Amino acid sequence: MRLDIITLFPELIESPFNASIIKRAKEFGLVKIFFHNPRDFSSNKFKQVDDYQYGGGAGMVMMIEPIVKCIKSLQSKRNYDQIIYLTPDGETLNQSTANRLSNTTNLILLCGHYKGVDQRIRDNFITQEISIGDFVLSGGELAAAVLCDSIVRLLPGVISDGSSALSDSFQDGILAPPIYTRPAEYEGMSVPAILLSGNTPKIEEWREKKSIELTKKLRPDLLDD
C-alpha cells in the first residue's frame, strides 16, 4: 500500500509513523508513506498557499492552485483508489471504512488547515471526505494519522497474529469482551474462572455473552443498527 499525504506541516505527523505498528509495516515493506507540501507547488514567490475568503469572513482558506498541482503531479505517476479529505463535516470514520480502505493500493490524504480548503477542490478532486468525530482540530494532520493507523494495522502481515484484529471492537458490529492476563489473582482481584478452565467452547460462549452485555451498556446504538 502507498499513502501520499498532502500537508503543510508534515512534522506534525511524522512521529506516529516512526514507531509501533506503522513502523513495523514500513520496515516489512507493507506500506510506503510519503509527505507532500503544497508550498512546493505554489507559483507565488513567497510560496503563499492561503488567502482571504471571497465574500468576507474570518479565517484564511487554502488556495486551489498549489493543491491541485500537487494532486495532478501524483496522479500523473500512478492511479489512486481514493483521494480523501480529512474534514469535520465528512463521513464519520468507522471500522467498516477502515476495513474497506485497507483493501486499496494507493491513497491520497489531503490535510486541511486554517479555515479549510477552497470548495472547488472538494467538488472536483476529492472522492471521499472523512471525519474522526464531531469536533474541530487545528488541521487534518492528526486525523490523517488516526486514519492511517486504522488502515495499516489491518494489512496482512502487519500484526503478528492476524486473527487479533478480527476480534477487535466493531469488527463484528459489537464491542470486544473484557480481557485479562497474568497473574490470575492480584490483591484479591481474580480473573473469571471460566477463562482458566481450558474449555474453549465455554470460553467463546462467555466472551460472546460479555460482548453483548458490554455493547448493551455502553453502545446500545450498535445493536439497534
Compact description:
The chain has 225 residues and is an alpha/beta fold.
What does this structure look like?
The protein is an alpha/beta fold. It folds into two domains: 151 residues, Alpha/beta knot (3-Layer(aba) Sandwich); 58 residues, Trp Operon Repressor, Chain A, CATH 1.10.1270.20. 33% of the residues lie in helices and 18% in strands. It contains eight helices and nine strands. The strands form three sheets. The chain has a five-stranded parallel sheet. Strands 3-4 form a two-stranded antiparallel ribbon.
SSE layout and pairings?
Elements: E1 2-6, H1 20-27, E2 32-36, E3 50-52, E4 60-62, H2 64-75, E5 82-92, H3 95-101, E6 106-111, H4 119-124, E7 128-131, H5 141-152, H6 162-166, E8 185-186, E9 189-190, H7 200-218, H8 220-224
Parallel strand pairs: 1-2, 1-6, 5-6, 5-7
Antiparallel strand pairs: 3-4, 8-9
Helix content: 25-40%
Uncertain runs:
none
Proportion of residues in extended strands = 15-25%
The helix-strand sequence is EHEEEHEHEHEHHEEHH
How far apart the termini lie comes to 31 Å
Please report the first level of CATH classification, the CATH class of the largest domain.
Alpha Beta
Number of domains: 2
Principal-axis shape equals elongated
Number of helices: 8
Find the CATH topology of the largest domain: Alpha/beta knot
CATH superfamily of the largest domain: SPOUT methyltransferase, trefoil knot domain
Structural class: alpha/beta
Major beta sheet, strand line-up? 2-1-6-5-7
Mean pLDDT rating: 94
Number of strands: 9
